[in-house]
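User: Structure with magnesium ion, tokens only please.
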Amino acid sequence: MELNDRRLGLTPKRIEALRSLGISSSEALLTYYPSRYDILNCSDPSSWKEKDRVSFEGTVAGRVFTSYFKGRAVSRFQVLSNDMVIAVTIFNRPWARSLKDGEVITVTGIYQGKRRVTAISYTSKSMEEQDRITPVYSVKAGIQQRTVRDSIRKAMDAALAEIDDLLPIRFQRAYRLCSKTDALRFMHEPKSEEDIRQAMRRLKYEEFLQFFTAMELLKSDHGQGIYKAPKAYDPSRIEAIIQSLSFELTAGQKDALNDILKDLSSTTPMMRLLQGDVGCGKTVVAAIAMAAAADAGYQAALLAPTEVLARQHLESLRTMLGSFGYTIDVLYSGLSNVEKEDVLHRIATGETQLIVGTHSLLQENVEFARLGFVAADEQQRFGVNQRKVLREKGVQTDFLLMSATPIPRTLAASIFGEMNVSAIETLPSGRKPVTTVLVKENSFRSVLDDVLDLLSNGHQLYVITAAIEKQEETPSRAAEDVVKALRTLFKNYTVALLHGRMSSSEKEEVMRQFYDNEAQILVSTTVVEVGMNVVNATGMIIYDSERFGLSQLHQLRGRVQRGSEQGYCWLLTGSKEETALERLNVLVNTTDGFQIAAEDLRLRGPGDILGTRQSGLPGLVLGSLYDDTAVMNTARKDAVTMMEDSLNPDFIPFLDAVRERSAEHGMAVD
Ligand code: ADP
Ligand code: MG
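Assistant:
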């Protein structure tokens, strides 16, 4: 059901608020799960501990004193509860002044010790009448909990009946799982903690079953068990290339390269995930492997997410391999028609051995003479469909995916199943860890001198913002405003702006300017995550840093650790929340991508880090790849059972739904 469906009865204002939370249908609304529950703590005051969230009923004793401090109302009064006097303070509720001596109220707040409570709310309802469990949804500033809660209630009345329960009966029975509608009702209106537990059991299992079914489909799609002619490369030439590099490969790079070379000479098509932190040298490894494939008589392709990156890769391939006589070409949509025709012709005749390109490489008009190896660069959204296209273009193509999303090795192996994993766990030596500074205000004036130093030494600066333009309800800094401010502040430098709503040719042009140092400051939303390699950029300022995932911040700062110069990253935040500051401090204190990912998972759950957006893994919202190993293993086994018995009427609806979803979202593993 669309959000504007009359049966839902949502006002345009509410619809807009929901859309800004990424909710666009009644189904999305019903699966917008609470981020936590507030559980009424009605325990006896004598058992309260400091910082506990507590609720108690009592009578107002005496009068309410209200004063104003920096424009904020502060009200203080006493409540008599079971013969005990509790001192209550409440902020920003000037109307608390009208509470009467003797009035019966229920207060919820945080216990401060010594019989003092800072109230979050109070009501004239008795304790009995209160919801014992209140779901709390994650919202943006300016959107009320009530908006989400009421909208969900409306969706439950109008749209819950439309939700199909596709989970095979066999598994529902075997694990005594509640129905889908019950699960959704329990999530949003639990009467007890047991309700929540039952709902979570059912929904997590379903998520994992979808997840592993999608993985199984992907595997069967890749064509396991197909025979491939081994690629006979020349080890002495590979050795010569390695010797000619201006640096020595790290142990991790050598191991990864050996894994790949073994795959090339095996009789099974390679399906390998190469993972490692930004800057650990994955592209270098891929380039050498491409040379090996070319030596064996095949063409090798490197896919890049943007034109600038494609050109960047072209340049490094030419530097590394040019003197060995390979024919290297590049293909992207920005080429002139004449250039394109020319390249297409060389690819088709086989003259081109190594080809770098964007998605253009996957288009119909690109015919390869003998494609045998494909490497996809990090962040390349690489769906089932694209893979099929490539397989059809190649002859038993070997396939290498490079990813900077740090997933622990054992976990990656279990997620990707048949996909083999190589991990590069150390950075090249001499690389200085980025100096990361947490600035506890949303302004860099306290570090302005450092920034000026950096610029006057000829270095370049990234400035990252969470939003493009000012939004009324969020106080965060917008790229457009920041650009204006910086242009006045740094008159001697050129400030460029890059954001996701620009056309791709506009984006390419801005990236080129920064790449060629025509612009010294690049203000950008997170599009720069995508592999920009500007060695001269050594500083990065990130506004509203608490709004980003830790792994995302880690990848962002990896951009200023490209050469031997010391890189600096200033994390700006106006947040006063302890958990937010604790999270950001993880980045100040460690540079280990795997550890950061683990912390991210601990503090935010898997949705963000392994969310569809970043890793392309389908919909794990509740399930955690770290904590739910039991249900995960069961679901994996059941997914295999379904695939092996895929004509079973009990399984068909579920399998069809997963298939449809993967096709729709171009499910990617990047
Ligand atoms: P990734 O793709 O993993 O982000 P790249 O392959 O782009 O990393 O390498 C990042 C930079 O480090 C490049 O400039 C590359 O030349 C350099 N580099 C790669 N491997 C080494 C090494 N072993 N020693 C020194 N520098 C290296
Ligand atoms: Mg790279």
